[in-house]
Amino acid sequence: MNKRAYLVVILLAMAVALSSCSSNSYSSQATDGFASLDQLNPENRIVDLAGEWEFYWNQLLAPEDIEAHLLQRKLVAIPHSWDDLGYPLQGYATYRLKTELEPDTIYGLELNDIATAYNLYINGEQAATRGKVGRKDADSVSKLGSEIVIFNTEQKQVEIVLQVSSFSYYKAGISGKVRLGGVYQLQQSRYKRIALALILSGILLSMAAYHLLFFIFRKKELSNLYFSIASFIVFIQTIFEESHFFSFLFPRLNLQTEERIQTILLILILPVVIASIYNIFKTSFHKPIVYFFYISSFLLAVAVIFTPFGASNPVWPIYGLLVLLGTAFLIYALVKNIRARNSNAFFLLTGTVCLAAAVAHDFLVDYRILQSYKLFSVGWVIFLVMVSTIITNQFSASFKKVEQLSVEINKKNIDLKQAYLEVEKRVKNRTSQLNLAKKRLEKANEQLKKDKQMFKVLSITDGLTGLFNHNHIIGELKREINRSKRYGNLLSVIMMDIDHFKTINDIHGHQNGDRVLSEIGNIIKETLRKADIAGRYGGEEFLIIMPETGLDSAYLLGERLREKVADHRWKIGNLKVNVSGGVAQHEYDMSYGVLLSKADKLLYKAKQEGRNRVER
């Protein structure tokens, strides 16, 4: 594989990783404490509740007390740490956001990295809590985490209130995203992020074991030991970052202890990486510079133990500068090796650049310049792939020497050559068989695609009438009601029933009854317009949905259907079949159940009035 091919593999790996955690979301951009959610459909959309939230500094207000404190209201941009807005890092506050949602609908509210203790209220009722909210450090218990809160809206107006206290973290307030949407959609988005974290963690742990085994069998190669240590550190780092697994595994650790461990591990990655690359290209590295990074990183790790966390924490800027210098140093040394025609240096340079880009990206995320998914683990996996490529190249060079010796032996050994030709012949025969099997498999796959398509049609179709089955017609009705609400279009339905169908079955038999159902299904399909939707509601009942159709037009269609059934010539003795129907028009805020009940009552009225008629 050439160098360009490796770069393509890298780009594909990053694209797959990023696409795995994407979601169908948009930002609400709340204004003056109110978020307009016109585009929100809980079945397939997620909204980030960003923008201007109401903010009450140094107050923990219950929902019922906020209106009395409106004069103290401020508007702040969310997500944001309140120390970036000019407030002290340590303190407490209350946030509020109002919006409007579809009543009687189940929603999910996802909270990410609310720093660091909070109480959540939705429409005046406490919906969630994390840690312990207090007005001073002694009364507050901080804990990082993320969760999805499920709630049911009983009214259109929704009020979200968050009481937050922060005394022990370098971010304060709502520094992470607050997302609203369907519970299933939020859980799917979260599961994707967790799945990616687990995949990356598994790869990193495997790489740590892989390089450790290489070191055990060849102890002279110290670079493998360092790569193993670095991979294990990044594995722990991934557990820290992704969905706060470390907090979940060690719930008794306080927040500052967790942050110190994570920061120390992050700092130690740099000297371990430099040590790894130094042991591969020793002649291109100046030892004093290498030792500078060793000592600086060690001192910085020690400083983390004694330095309090806060917005003015000097560790992060110094570490950022150290990472920048270390990256420049590595790139400089690797470029020198590339100019010296060391092919392995190209792969390591590619991995180093990808890792540096991921680190730079994560710094921007930490400082809230970017709102994105952290890429450090992805960058490290790419870096390790490049390292593995170097190891593979080294082994490949050794194998080439073995192959040369093998060729010389083959020239001297006629019997071995004949055996080789025989094996080659068998391989060709086997290849021919595999090609034939491949063609058969392709044919089977083509048939499988056709079967899947047929199964998809059958799963939504009533086998007797050829119309949509009950579940699908109800789903179509819900979609048309949502569309009618969104665009203000007319919508009518017809509930139609065969008169005295039981008598038909009793006198003419169930097979003829089935024929009646089948032919009425054909009559409905021939009579309806292209935009109309029909399905078998159950038994001898049919449901017809007519988008953009008023009550009068729907009634005329119902009458036309009734007359066609009445005039139809049945090839079953002297059978005469009639139908009755109820026509109802959807009104705003009417649920599908109410609309069906309305049509069903009109159908019942048609039955009461003598059948063979349509009521509206």
Structure description:
The protein has helices at residues 3-20, 183-217, 222-241, 245-249, 255-278, 287-306, 315-339, 343-366, 376-412, 414-460, 470-487, 501-508, 510-527, 551-567, 592-608, and strands spanning 25-27, 34-35, 46-48, 51-57, 74-78, 91-100, 105-112, 114-115, 117-122, 125-130, 146-153, 157-166, 173-174, 178-181, 491-498, 533-538, 541-547, 579-585, 614-615. 33% of the residues are buried. The protein is an alpha+beta fold and 616 residues long. The radius of gyration is 35 Å and the shape is flat. Strands 2, 4, 5, 6, 9, 10 and 12 form a 7-stranded mixed sheet that branches. The protein has a 5-stranded mixed sheet with strand order 1-3-14-7-11, covered by helices on one side. The protein has a 5-stranded mixed sheet with strand order 16-17-15-18-19, with helices on both faces.
The radius of gyration is: 35 Å
Number of beta-strand segments: 19
Strand count, sense and barrel status of the largest sheet are: 7 strands, mixed
Mean pLDDT: 82
Subunit organisation of the chains: single chain
* Helix amount: 40-55%
**Number of helical stretches of at least 4 residues:** 15
Query: Unreliable stretches, pLDDT < 50, 5 or more residues?
Result: 18-23
β content, as a range? 15-25%
What is the first-to-last residue Cα distance? 73 Å
Structural classification: alpha+beta
Coarse shape = flat
Layout of helices and strands:
Blueprint: H1 3-20, E1 25-27, E2 34-35, E3 46-48, E4 51-57, E5 74-78, E6 91-100, E7 105-112, E8 114-115, E9 117-122, E10 125-130, E11 146-153, E12 157-166, E13 173-174, E14 178-181, H2 183-217, H3 222-241, H4 245-249, H5 255-278, H6 287-306, H7 315-339, H8 343-366, H9 376-412, H10 414-460, H11 470-487, E15 491-498, H12 501-508, H13 510-527, E16 533-538, E17 541-547, H14 551-567, E18 579-585, H15 592-608, E19 614-615
Parallel strand pairs: 1-3, 2-6, 18-19
Antiparallel strand pairs: 3-14, 4-5, 4-6, 6-12, 7-11, 7-14, 8-13, 9-10, 9-12, 15-17, 15-18, 16-17
Helix pairs in contact: 2-3, 2-9, 3-5, 3-9, 5-6, 5-7, 6-7, 7-8, 8-9, 12-13, 13-14
